[in-house]
Amino acid sequence: MELRFTEEQEMMRKMVRDFAQEQIAPMVAEMEETDRFPKEIIKQMGDLGLLGIPISEEYGGSDMDFTSYIIAIHELSKVSATVGVILSVHTSVGTNPILYFGTEEQKQKYVPKLATGEYLGAFAITEPGAGSDAASIRTSAVKDGDHYVINGSKIFITNAGEADTYIVSAKTDPSAGVKGISVFIVEKDTPGFSVGKKEHKMGLHGSNTCELIFEDVRVPVSNLLGEEGEGFKILMSNLDVGRIGIAAQSLGIAEAALESAIGYAKERQQFGKPIGMQQGLGFKLADMATKVEAAKLLVYRAAALRQKGLPCGQEASMAKLFASRAAMEVATEAIQVFGGYGYTKDYPVERYFRDAKICEIYEGTSEIQRIVISKHLLRD
Ligand code: CAA
């Protein structure tokens, strides 16, 4: 199998790479310092069509293929993993559920706004007592005439506070286990809905991660996504796709760490020669590059399957499991290559290290990815 991209995909890579270098790179230090959400960058991305890459023109999107979307996350994350995750969450889990499970009316109402960047999307499943065990949510939705009344809370919600629409899971039948979960589109200004505590995170500065609070939030029945009780399958199948995005984010971080390490290893002289020429460091770089290459193959293979409409849950989990581990290991080794300088904020490698860690946690921890993969192995 040869990894070859089409001309159109290469154009996307170049466009995103240039945009990231010219517009995002100069803002990274400020995002790191202030933790401010990069609103103006997201606005520019909307103008460039990056918020609706794999969405058809009919719904306001750029009508490009899924691999182009993954290329965009990969390239953005090389410069800013923060911008990478904002895009991934917005598209994979913030917009796709409406596109794939929404009624025509829901699609017409929300998708063009999300695809063009007029709206930003978010996805709310996690609760204080329901992280890896996503089916154990306690947020409830009780039908009352032509509305559902939602009560409960969510935590660790990416894009919270900046998003205009939230894909929210809630129990419509608490006695029915996973079959009692439903999914709703909740608009940010709905009375009773509020954004709570913002987390101060180790990394991904600039990406909002907040609590959501639902106090008698009345959502019209027309905002139920799919059928009542179908929610868990909607959530899980969207996470299958979302995980390819996080794998691409991990790949971007790993590649950035590798490139920094190679640059430094060529430049830094010790014992009379560049440190990369010392076998210990040369071997380190070789191992780092091999991990990045393997991650790339897994990420783009999962993307290719998804693009062809083939099942990709197992491959998405494998890509996320491997690429997030690779990002962590490569970033750790990059710090080692930089030595004492790598531990300072003068170089970006400490940021790659902090940003990489979350990739092993969100959209399903590495342990959850192993559960998903092993279930596929035993079932198939
Ligand atoms: N697609 C469609 N249906 C699926 C599915 C999938 N990928 N996975 C499971 N299902 C269905 C099953 O077929 C089953 O239905 P039937 O009974 O009709 O067969 C039902 O869902 C229940 O499946 P399981 O018994 O496998 O469910 P479980 O309770 O054991 O949980 C799990 C499975 C994989 C552990 C799941 O809970 C999980 O993925 N947990 C991790 C949660 C997660 O990833 N959270 C991410 C939060 S979002 C985020 O992080 C975004 C961000 O900020 C970046």
UniProtKB/TrEMBL annotation:
UniProt GO MF annotations: acyl-CoA dehydrogenase activity; flavin adenine dinucleotide binding
CDD domains: SCAD_SBCAD
Domain Acyl-CoA oxidase/dehydrogenase middle, chain residue ranges per copy: 122-217
Ranges of residues in domain Acyl-CoA dehydrogenase/oxidase C-terminal: 229-378
Cofactor(s) essential for the protein: FAD
Catalytically driven reaction(s): a 2,3-saturated acyl-CoA + A = a 2,3-dehydroacyl-CoA + AH2
Every Acyl-CoA dehydrogenase/oxidase N-terminal domain range: 6-118
Keyword entries, A-Z: FAD, Flavoprotein, Oxidoreductase
Family matches, as Pfam families: Acyl-CoA_dh_1 (PF00441), Acyl-CoA_dh_M (PF02770), Acyl-CoA_dh_N (PF02771)
InterPro entries reported for this sequence: Acyl-CoA_DH_CS, Acyl-CoA_Oxase/DH_mid-dom, Acyl-CoA_Oxase/DH_mid-dom_sf, AcylCo_DH-like_C, AcylCo_DH/oxidase_C, AcylCoA_DH/ox_N, AcylCoA_DH/ox_N_sf, AcylCoA_DH/oxidase_NM_dom_sf
Family label: Belongs to the acyl-CoA dehydrogenase family.
Full protein name: Acyl-CoA dehydrogenase
Originating species: Anaerobacillus isosaccharinicus
